[in-house]
Design a protein that fits this description.
The complex is a heterodimer. Chain A is built from nine helices and no strands. Chain A has a domain at 7-111 and 212-241. By secondary structure, chain A is an all-alpha fold. In chain A, 72% of the residues lie in helices and 0% in strands. Chain B is an alpha/beta fold. Chain B contains 17 helices and 20 strands. In chain B, the strands form four sheets. Chain B has a six-stranded mixed β-sheet with strand order 6-7-8-3-9-10, sandwiched between helices. Chain B is globular. The relative contact order of chain B is 0.12. At the A-B interface, helix 6, helix 7 and helix 8 of A face helix 4, helix 9, strand 16 and helix 10 of B.
Chain lengths: 242, 501
């Protein structure tokens, strides 16, 4: 894959797949969606990190399974005509949650923050919003580098972060947060200066970027629309048409 | 030849933060000339840059008087956006000046802001991309660029506004030797096209061919033109250390970051008491990773690091700080407390060391009279002292200085020398990570060269710096020739030095 997909396609695909997760009710659909997530990761060559992050969600899935199975109709203690246990529902909801997590993870791993901003710009989001969000996203990485550097410097001065009681630990983290806060304010000041040096104004008549969708983009968008349409018909008019 | 000066600065004074930062500064600059203003940390370089670009007094409050004549017109105190297209400023944290998602867009960002026509934008874009060799990167996302390319990009987007003068604030910070040489070539290319440069820097090593004029900015007082003597003072340490029990043992260590980059590939290194060790190598060769491994901040993927017999695997970095302490480069970065005393005593309190250590350290660096002052009110050289003192207060066996780029002047060099002498006298070790061959040559008795995660040389500075093969391989520069042999590129150099003779 030499040419990457258009960011718009990626964001549309993501929301399309996400809405499918909430609409469909068959195991084959879910399997299909999980396979799509895996395939995306395969093309992006990040299957390993994908699986690694997925494993971290196992406790969440287990809790979800227990909640949906045991608290069916809000009660485990319900004795009478209907019981409070529903393992089927538990399994179904867990599978749905798992699919949801897989799709979202695949999206996060496959789409760079820059692409998200680009998609917002191209989808005619207000420029102020897209620009601000872009700046914020870009500075998250700077801040996390900053955080790491300060943390290392403080550890070098003997600051213990992984021992002691909870309260003490929280207090110790303030010794990282204070310098970080000061740095953030400084960076913000620099940023405003830098913007002025580029004569920044929030002009409305910015040039619109001309990015064309390729054939693959059109094919994928059409495909997702058809699939969603089909699933709506399939689940709503099951008895009538099919 | 154009005889008229583009920029003339007459008696510029600036008071800022209740201090007199600039005192009667005067200089002039012609078309296509490169002026380098050299001064130590805190000597007012950034203040000068802000005055010239109109940030002081408009955005940062400060009192200025004097004259800044640009083509005969006084521009002192003019709003910064009115100077766009005349004076371009590249800040020390140039990364904050990148706004575009892609290289192309970042360059267009400023051009669109000043409301140029589409055709003109295209023209300028193609010109800057070509003159800086960024054509292959035009669609690349800016966040994915290396720091060298980011600097190039900021230069590109600055000159795309067609400024007559480009001011660069400390462009050499964190550049390795090949990076400096690249920058030199860029500047030489651009000055041929008539752009003048003002380069504010702590040293000009590596840029000599590009620079026409030099001005020294000395502390907050007087300037001397054309005096270079203190930069390259040679004072070699005796290297009669004895090998005894190593303080740090690095035994066949491999290290891989979680994202999969193998950075250290089988390094073995022992550090002994009395060592003043320089770790050198190009950017990205693993120098910083190596010192983090030595201090226990990172744990080796394979192999062992032992600090005074304790494996870093079993001991937290905070516990080991008693034995190995790193002084990180930016002295302002981790100021945490309201007073100098709290700042220095922080480490002692953490490690339950007697507070007399902190007192000692403060006395050592002549900061004891200022213990109740807020750290942010200290001068730059005092902040550097504070930074080192708060590490020194832990009484470490090994003190690691990470790229002490701030020490290119008399004062701070003196501080480092004091530290080294103190540490050596009690048979401790000092490790300095640096790009600067002169520093390594004059201060250290042992140099380790690391390239691509492997140690390729470990010897005395004398033998390493005479080995041209190694120097070429890692693109290190030879220690400086005596100062009077420095050749300056332009025609005006004679005139400047003429004033000294």
């Amino acid at each position: 894959m030499s040419k990457s997909l258009d960011p718009r396609t990626k964001i549309i695909m993501f929301f399309g797949l996400l809405s499918l997760v909430f609409m469909v009710k068959d195991i084959y659909w879910f399997l299909g969606l999980i396979i799509i997530a895996l395939l995306t990761m395969f093309f992006k060559k990040s299957v390993r990190i994908f699986l690694k992050m997925l494993i971290k969600f196992i406790p969440v899935l287990l809790i979800a399974f227990m909640l949906w199975s045991l608290f069916y109709n809000w009660s485990v203690f319900r004795i009478g005509n209907s019981n409070g246990f529903n393992v089927n529902l538990g399994m179904f909801m867990t599978l749905r949650l798992f699919t949801l997590i897989s799709i979202s993870l695949a999206f996060i791993l496959a789409v760079k923050p820059e692409e998200l901003i680009r998609a917002l710009e191209l989808l005619r989001f207000p420029y102020v919003l897209a620009f601000t969000l872009g700046l914020a996203l870009r500075h998250i990485t700077t801040m996390s580098d900053e955080y790491r550097a300060i943390k290392e410097a403080q550890i070098s001065r003997g600051l213990e972060l992984d021992s002691g009681f909870l309260l003490k630990r929280i207090r110790n983290y303030t010794y990282i947060l204070i310098p970080l806060l000061i740095r953030t304010i400084e960076t913000a000041e620099k940023l405003t200066l830098a913007m002025e040096l580029k004569a920044f104004t929030l002009r409305k008549d910015r040039r619109k970027m001309e990015y064309r969708l390729s054939i693959i983009d059109y094919v994928l968008i059409t495909l997702i629309v058809i699939v969603i349409g089909f699933s709506i018909i399939y689940y709503n008019f099951k008895g009538v048409l099919l | 030849m154009e005889t008229l000066n583009k920029l003339t600065v007459n008696n510029l004074n600036c008071n800022y933060d209740k201090r007199k930062v600039l005192n009667n500064i005067s200089f002039s600059l012609g078309k296509g000339e490169v002026l380098s203003i050299i001064g130590p940390a805190g000597s007012g370089k950034t203040t000068l840059a802000y005055c010239l670009s109109g940030i002081i007094p408009n955005r940062v409050k400060g009192y200025v008087d004097g004259e800044i004549l640009l083509n005969g017109e006084n521009v002192l105190g003019r709003e910064p956006y009115k100077l766009v297209g005349k004076i371009g400023l590249i800040m020390q944290d140039y990364e904050t000046q990148i706004f575009g998602l892609t290289v192309e867009e970042d360059i267009m960002f400023g051009l669109e802001n000043i409301g140029l026509e589409e055709k003109e934008i295209r023209k300028r874009l193609d010109w800057v991309l070509k003159s800086l060799g960024l054509e292959n990167y035009r669609r690349k996302y800016t966040s994915q660029l290396s720091s060298g390319l980011k600097q190039k990009l900021v230069i590109a987007s600055t000159i795309s506004m067609y400024p007559e003068i480009v001011i660069m604030d400390d462009p050499l910070l964190n550049l390795d030797w090949s990076g400096i040489k690249n920058l030199e070539n860029i500047i030489i290319d651009l000055k041929k096209q008539g752009i003048s440069f003002i380069i504010l820097t702590k040293h000009i090593k590596g840029l000599e061919r590009a620079i026409d004029k030099i001005i020294m900015l000395n502390g907050n007082t007087v300037m001397h033109e054309g005096e270079l003597s203190f930069i390259n003072k040679k004072d070699t340490m005796p290297n009669n250390y004895e090998k005894s029990v190593p303080l740090i043992e690095v035994d066949n260590v491999w290290f891989k970051y979680p994202d999969g980059d193998l950075v250290i590939k089988g390094v073995s290194l022992n550090v002994y008491g009395g060592d003043v060790l320089a770790i050198m190598g190009p950017n990205g060769s693993g120098k910083t990773t190596l010192i983090k491994l030595m201090s226990g901040l990172l744990k080796p993927t394979k192999g062992h690091v032992k600090v005074i017999g304790r494996s870093t695997r079993n001991h937290g970095a905070a516990k080991l700080a008693k034995y190995v302490t790193i002084v990180f480069q930016n002295p302002e970065k981790h100021i945490t407390f309201e007073t100098v005393w709290d700042e220095v005593a922080f480490g002692c309190k953490n490690l339950k060391l007697p507070l007399s250590y902190a007192e000692n350290a403060l006395k050592c660096f002549q900061l004891f009279e200022r213990i109740y002052d807020p750290p942010y009110e200290l001068s730059m050289s005092e902040k550097i002292k504070l930074n080192i003192a708060s590490a020194f207060a832990l009484d470490p066996n090994v003190l690691i200085l990470d790229e002490p780029v701030t020490i290119h002047d008399h004062n701070s060099l003196g501080i480092i020398k004091t530290v080294i002498e103190k540490m050596r006298s009690i048979d401790r070790a000092v490790i300095i990570v640096t790009h600067d061959s002169d520093l390594a040559f004059s201060l250290c008795n042992r140099v380790v060269i690391i390239n691509d995660g492997v140690i390729i040389a470990d010897n005395t500075p004398q033998s390493i710096f005479s080995n041209h093969e190694i120097l070429r391989k890692v693109e290190l520069k030879q220690p400086e020739v005596p100062t009077h042999e420095i050749k300056l590129g332009g025609a005006h150099s004679e005139q400047v030095f003429g004033s000294e003779n």
